[in-house]
Amino acid sequence: MASDEWLAKEDVGKLAYQQGGNMAGKYYRELIVWRKGITLAREVYTLTKGFPRSEKYGLASQVQRAAVSVPSNIAEGQARKYTAEFRQFLYQALGSLAEVDTQLFLAQDLQYVGKADVARAELLIGELQKMIYALLARLPHVKERH
């Protein structure tokens, strides 16, 4: 993966960081990783439509919340003032991806969805993990001022 793939091509260079770790731009909607997170959330909502009615407030709701949490954490982190905060929210997005993966595994095990049904979501999860790790590697490690 190229170092700038997490940014939309037209926006490479727009996301700049001021000295001291303050973020100069807020372009989360232009981040490819955010867009892919939205795609994952849509995919999860589509998958959970086939869950049993009894799971509406159980596993279906839980996996939906975890999936929505991925792009939400990316957006919230990008909107924060400091790079260290953005990094923390990216790690939270990674945790949410692990939750989605686990919950879809369980849904498959319970036969709420088939293996083929979750294949696209699993692919998106893997891509998102790689993209978030690439983004984390690209962000500067800056000691925050208090």
Q: What is shown here, in short?
A:
The protein is an all-alpha fold and 146 residues long. It is 61% helix and 0% strand.
What are the key terms here?
0% strand, mainly alpha, 4 helices, 146 residues
The percent of residues in helical segments reads 55-70%
Apparent shape: elongated
Q: What can be said about the biggest beta sheet?
A: none
In whole angstroms, the N-to-C terminal distance is 35 Å
- The number of helical runs is 4
What does this structure look like?
The protein starts with 31 loop residues before the first helix and ends in an 8-residue tail after the last helix. α1 packs antiparallel against α2 (59-79) and α3 packs antiparallel against α4. The chain is built from four helices and no strands. It is an all-alpha fold and 146 residues long. 33% of the residues are buried. The longest helix is centred in the middle third of the chain and has 27 residues, at 83-109. The protein has helices spanning 32-48, 59-79, 83-109, 115-138.
Please render the helix and strand layout as text.
Layout: H1 32-48, H2 59-79, H3 83-109, H4 115-138
